[in-house]
Amino acid sequence: MGGNSAVVVGGGIGGLAAAIGLRLAGWEVTVVERVAVLDDAGAGISLAANGMRALAALGVGEAVEAAARRQYTGGTRTPDGRRLSLMDGAALERELGAPIVGIPRTGLHRVLREALPAESLRIGAEVTDIDTSQPPRVRVAFGSTTLDADLVVAADGINSRTRQRLFPAHPGPAYSGSTVLRAITRRPVEGLTTDFELTWGHGAEFGHIAFPDGRAEWHAVLNAPAGVRYPDPLTEVRRRFADWHEPIPALLAATAPAAVLHHDVHELATPLPSYVAGRIALLGDAAHAMTPHLGQGACQALEDAVTLAAAVAGERTVEAALSRYDAARRPRSQTVARDARRAGRMGQQLVNPLAVGLRNAAIRLTPPGVMVRTVLKHADWTPPRIAPRTA
């Protein structure tokens, strides 16, 4: 299919990546994003090999690597600093042929935006209607503009209005039981010697992602009722993690109070029966929002984007392309979401002291080769080729 037009609803990582992929497939694309600034200033992100392979397939892998820090060192620890497992990022990179990297979300958004022509981005505009009453075209209204499209990609996040419209009986997002506070330090952090690290306590996790300039993003994940908020979030995190090992105190000391973000973690605990309806495709969190415990949310959205573009490029009709996309993406992404939920229950969310002790002992006794295979289960993904049909 060539010379067709698509509207992407949502200008986050998945939506921008989908737009890049569809343009590679020969389509005209318009991205409509309701917020005026395309970033998440207080957050960083780790991208596993599957995410980096997807970015390479979109032609932006080298630019992302240039803005990121490769993750070779770190692992998992207990609050007193004892090692549970060591990270061997170099071994994983050799095995997969792609690195694990850490990057500020602002940097990733910038690379993705710069791969698109400015005129294809409609920022600060909210989609108000998606009209499917005159197939095969879909009419999308935003602001004072109306566009007719051959395909609509709904990448409008966990609270996707498009998903609610397509699947009104679906219960929607569910609270996971975890809440996360996070920030990027305002300066380089002294004593930060690892690229990526997680520390597990009882119903709590603290982790960091180091950046090329010496700054880092940290996150604190806590078991908590939904909606709990603190008058001074940074003071609360310092209190909660006061006796945890370095560099946790150093990370918090390098943080400005106003930089701390606080969000409850929701997920689509009930899997969707389909990621497509007519000529509308759901992508990223709109399709399979998952907990962060495997670090796969953005990677799965990037996989979605490449798979959708390859399907559109390789099939004669939009309907056939979306059927192929759904068949490829739904089983894998829903499996990753389920595994992320399980990882949280056995990791950050675990509270019982006996269970925590047994888990820690099991991790220490796990051979490194088994740990590598566990990572490979999710990160070993080969992107399809985005090659438009010639006949």
Structure characterization notes:
There is one protein chain. A 7-stranded mixed beta sheet has the order 6-5-14-15-16-13-17. Helix content is about 35%, strand content about 25%. It has a domain at about 5-70 and about 95-175 and about 270-345: FAD/NAD(P)-binding domain (3-Layer(bba) Sandwich). The longest helix is centred in the last third of the chain and has 29 residues, at about 320-345. The protein has helices at about 15-25, 50-55, 60-65, 90-95, 105-115, 160-165, 235-240, 250-255, 285-290, 295-315, 320-345, 355-365, 370-380; strands at about 5-10, 30-35, 45, 70, 75, 85, 100-105, 120-125, 125-130, 140, 145-150, 150-155, 175-185, 195-200, 205-210, 215-225, 260-265, 275, 280. A hairpin with a 2-residue loop joins strand 10 and strand 11 (about 145-150).
